Structure of NADH:ubiquinone reductase (non-electrogenic):
Amino acid sequence: MLNFDQLSLNIPDTTKPRVVVIGGGFGGINLVKKLSGKDFQIVMFDKQNYHGFWPLLYQVATAGLEPDAIAEPLRKMFDEDYEDFHFRLVRILGVDPLTKTVKTMIGDLHYDYLVIATGTKANFFGNEQVQKYSFSLKTIPEALNLRSQLLQSFEQASITKDPDIRQSLLNYVIVGAGPTGVEMAGSLAEMRKHVLPGDYPGLDFSKMNIYLVEGLDRVLPPMSPEASAKTQKYLEDMGVVVKLKTLVESYDGETVTFKGGEQIRSQTVVWAAGVTGALIDGLPKELIARGGRITVNEFNQVQGYNDIFAIGDIAFMKTEKWPNGHPGVAQPAIQQGQHLAKNLRRLIKNEPMTKFDYFDKGSLAIIGRVRAVADLPGNLHLGGFVAWVAWLFVHIYYLIGFRSKLVVLSNWIYRLFTYERGTRLIIRPFVRRDKKEMEEFVVKNELS
Amino acid sequence: MLNFDQLSLNIPDTTKPRVVVIGGGFGGINLVKKLSGKDFQIVMFDKQNYHGFWPLLYQVATAGLEPDAIAEPLRKMFDEDYEDFHFRLVRILGVDPLTKTVKTMIGDLHYDYLVIATGTKANFFGNEQVQKYSFSLKTIPEALNLRSQLLQSFEQASITKDPDIRQSLLNYVIVGAGPTGVEMAGSLAEMRKHVLPGDYPGLDFSKMNIYLVEGLDRVLPPMSPEASAKTQKYLEDMGVVVKLKTLVESYDGETVTFKGGEQIRSQTVVWAAGVTGALIDGLPKELIARGGRITVNEFNQVQGYNDIFAIGDIAFMKTEKWPNGHPGVAQPAIQQGQHLAKNLRRLIKNEPMTKFDYFDKGSLAIIGRVRAVADLPGNLHLGGFVAWVAWLFVHIYYLIGFRSKLVVLSNWIYRLFTYERGTRLIIRPFVRRDKKEMEEFVVKNELS
């Protein structure tokens, strides 16, 4: 009925320069917000119809927040008030810099300026078995799958007769102690203490183990050693087993094997160990820097092109202060998006562009209820409740402009006083599609 | 790995009488709330891990509310404060009244008292084609599928070149003008007026048609003629095309054909035309009354059994006042659950049971923002804003005890002042699995 011949991008012709933005993350939306439909025709492509506030995605996975609290439809964000703005929900096939064309599943589009803001995806370092069996946490569907898996593991642990299987259902292994891994581990530890014993009075939660595994010699490696030390102490106080300098060798869906031979049986392995750029076909391979990022100059121009830019996590900009590129967090993406908007306006007026200069506002991570760590400019390190308040304010502040703010706030306040999570609904049971017996179990017990 | 041999229901032995409740709807939860673990061991089975406030399910389908606002985990509702209560997420195979046993996928369980509270499911009157291609609205996954379909139809209408296909994407046919159909039609009409033109500036929403189709001669047939007339007027004022005395002959996924020959091309047909009891194997066929319900006496006892009860929508209790049984809404289920709890306590004390007497509090339906109709006891009929306020208070009142209350309230207040819906996220694109081309389209464009 509907096939590709009957579809087209349906973007109006224009005499203004056309800016095509690929990706509605922090970089893309901040660029569009600062551009005007009076000067440019702006086209945004994304394979999702929403912008996500990914720093809170772990909350969706641990049943603290629903997706609508951390995501906002892009069409709502850029509604009819945005002149000559066109969003298309579409998958990109590639770019052709020679003809200045973006290729999509339903047709090609000429650009005057192309902005690649595609961000990153999970990096399994080529280990297909780990990719197949572990849970990553980069998208809302992934977070909902992980949430279903967590809840189903408690249900299944309640009804299994085999103590070994029960233990493997109650062993949770989180690989990678960056912010996502740390926040996930802290959140699970709080559920174990405050929520789960009430829900599952028949289960012995002293047998539930949370392992946080990191290849380097400290947790939160991008933060200061002070923050790392505080974080590890907080986590260990909460009963998380932190394993440093430990690398995963393999995971077959039942047993994690670490380099060196140690093994843990676990049904739930969360992979938060690294990301790589979500690249687009059509750019020369020699532009791809470490971490699968695209090399750009200090104007975010992709090396060798005047009209192609990359911003945010996908961009690798080497500067004196940041010889390994900027950190892969929201701030560089936001600032690059805003800065590039100014430079595009300069370009069409034939004015020289200005260099991007990253203003480091510091970094924050939350470990649990009223506990966080912060590295602030001026070598200032905070911990505990003060850092938690800072974390809360920064996140609420950046959610401004989102309707979600209200929901997030009321949820946070509610949880603060009650320790309660309201969203422990198994909406679509997670089915590990490669494991026939598991599938049989869940399909026969399917909930819908 | 996990197979059925390794699982068991794992319910502790007991010397108390064991009450097994099948279903965590309004009947089941109100029964359990009034029973005490001091007198009984209480076991609840459900194939979902949550209780849903289904009168608001249409809000999930039209992106007004997220699932957590209308559903509550059963384990949270009956937590450790409920002595000797045991919830199991499990699918029921049947009952054996001779051995007093409930059979599940993972083992059998003996009962002293069995309460069937399984409610209803959509009734397609044997029309398999309609069942295959239309959307029903009885469960959260169904509501989320319908939401995805609605949002995708606008996205696809934005990019199709073929005006016939665009029109069929913008034709929405709702079959059945009961409360669900009416609320769905009203909600879609409000989206068309207040929300969609901002999101899709390139689409001409004067071409979006909402058809509400009813086989009988008025909308809301269970309510008073006054309420029906008011409702039809409100709907028509909002631009809904109401088609009475109209029956669906067939729907092949592209064209709805009505009895008499009229046809409408539509990609989205919502089936809200009827329900039938969600029966359990093992009871004699002659007990099944009209609408697939189980015949009970005025103690909710299933005919012929002293120890099997049915409550709520699944129960057919013929009384002088209600010769066709009680209406299929929340109130009879709530009252029967509460009443049966008292009777079970009487039974174990060898006291005589008391008859169930339904207290009709009236009925309510909402048509749109600040418009509703109400039939109250004493032949009192309300409409407009007053009925809407009544609707709001009744729904908020029955959400008390739910955390959701807060979320629902804040969402409602927010929407009241902004006309805004925050949850237009296509989280898991709906795939019409029987249509190869559509699947190809969506799978290749999949969002996750």
Summary: DSSP finds 13 helices and 26 strands in chain A. The longest strand of chain A covers residues 41-46. Residues 4-122+276-348 of chain A form a domain with the FAD/NAD(P)-binding domain fold (CATH 3.50.50.60).
